[in-house]
Sequence to fold (654 residues):
Amino acid sequence: MNSLGLKIPFYGLILAFGLFAPLMFPAYTNQMAVLWLMIILSLTWDLQGGQMGYNSLGNIFFFGFGMYVSAVVQIGLVYDVGVYTRASGGGIFEFTPVQYYTGLALGMAAAGVLSSISAVILGRIVFGLRGPYFAIGTLGVAIAAGELTGAWGWVGGGQGITMPQVPGDPDSAKYFLYLLNFSLAVVLFIFLSWLYSTRFGQAINAIRDDEEKAEGMGIRTTRYKSICWAVSAFFLGISGAVFGNMIGFIEPLEVAFQTINFGIFMVVMVLLGGKGTLWGPIVGAVVFHVIKELTWTYLLGWQWVALGAMIVIIVVYFQDGIMGWVKRKKPEWFGIRVEEKEFAGQPEAAE
Amino acid sequence: MSQIISNFSILLQAPIFNLSLLIDGLMIGAVYALSAYGLALVWGVMNVKNLAQGDFVMMGGYTAWFMSLYGIHPLFGVPVAFVLMWGFGWVVYVTIIRRVIDQDLFTSLLATFGLAIVIAQVLNILFTSDTQTADAGFDSFLLFGGLVTIPQVKLIAFVLAAMLAAAVILFMKNSRMGQAIRATAQDERAARVMGIDTDKVYAFTFSLNAAICGAAGALISMIWVIQPFFGITYSIRAFVVVTAAGFGNLPGVIAAGLGMGVIEQFGGFILGAEFQQAIVVGLLLLVLIIKQMQYARLRQVVE
Fold:
């Protein structure tokens, strides 16, 4: 598993699947796009929940924030945002392809950058909170953001915003947005696997293991925590921007700041896969997404109950996650050597 | 914005409205204090932060409301909700809480969050997402020539909440079980060494919490509205009150609960009812920020 000879075909297979699967099964393009989105969500959560030990329940804030930033930028480049939202889209406003693509590119960039900045500012406020206070505080930020956006008429309030459509025929538009999700997930994965191998990765692991001691060893904890959260927020903001375009209609409580939907999913996916590992969040996201799609299809009406029960079961009975379980069963796959105790002398002694 | 200013000037020009808001706030705050007291109990004794607190409240509320559908007066719903939720709390303890009690705090937070989703969704399927009120059919007292109305049902709820709180406090002070609970809160290991069955104490504490929440919910169903998804707001309210007061501080919890009710009434009147949830969350953030500044000062003193 660790040798290079196996790794190249393995990654090649995933890349090929990612690029061509939607062309082979066009009916499932959206589900697969959401799958990559789930992977982005769980990887960014694990960056600061699993690796740094700051369990946030409100990371969805950056997702929704990025979504709204990109919407405002995309629309604001061409029209007056207030006028646009008051007309509720309504098909009155057209976007030429050039306008759309420059808007999207700028919107994604702005979403990422502004989300990072907001993470640094928020970090000043909430990073003094430890443990469960941090979790509740961030949850509060996410809920408050949803409520306040809902009361803000300029960005459409509770009515939401109808997003500009991707130009071109619907199938290639779908594939385009799918590719955005996919490439973001790939970039994020490559970036994180590099990041975890650097001093930065070790520093945030030290913060997780014992923050006071890490500080005593001369690690500037506040700076590391801010950067870590800002990285997480950067990717979350961009993914929010992409998702907003994908779903076509954004609204504060159900789409952007969906606290109990994606907001809790990202935590559960990481726990299911295994906290603090590189592959755990990915495995967790895939398994969770498949289970979620199945419950949505076969348990209609009861799907939320099933999902809540699943959260409880995963958290209570399956703490280590899938990767933790594999690690216990097959430690040698992870480069951990288990010393077999030698009892060679004993049988002879018994004789 | 002009709406906010005009609302504010109403309060200045007609001081009698202040009184009416104050009384309303205190009466609702009494119920908040009740559910916050349950959370303080569980938090202090078991170190479990229960995010399903508000959903227990809603379950109690739906018990009373469901009984009122069959012509039983919702006041009888209070003891029934107390008993039913006691049993439910025990089941939750045995299946979930017992297994997360030694884990880190985030685990219990997340497990109870999952439980909160389950409860809210089951209530939604059973009773739909409409807001409901159990009609108690009482009149209102009119004071100051009708400017201040005090619904009798709110007064009764206030008195019942106070009585229940007094009963629980007396129980904790005087009974054998209450002593065991307090001993376990102080030092779990020492309590075990002294022969206290801490598992039983935990089960009892958690059931008591659920029962208190159930009774509080039955009261809320009479004086206000219940809805399956309002639970999380009550959880946050309880959390705000306990964080502000500290969990060992019973008078503090009661004062903070009453204060919370009053602030919400005034805030809702001035800003408008649609900001109700935002006010609660804003208070949470405010309390957490103040707490953090206190910590920061403490760290500086230590250094």
Remarks:
- Chain A is about 70% helix and 0% strand.
- Confidence is low (pLDDT under 50) at residues 345-351 of chain A.
- The first helix of chain A runs from residue 4 to 24.
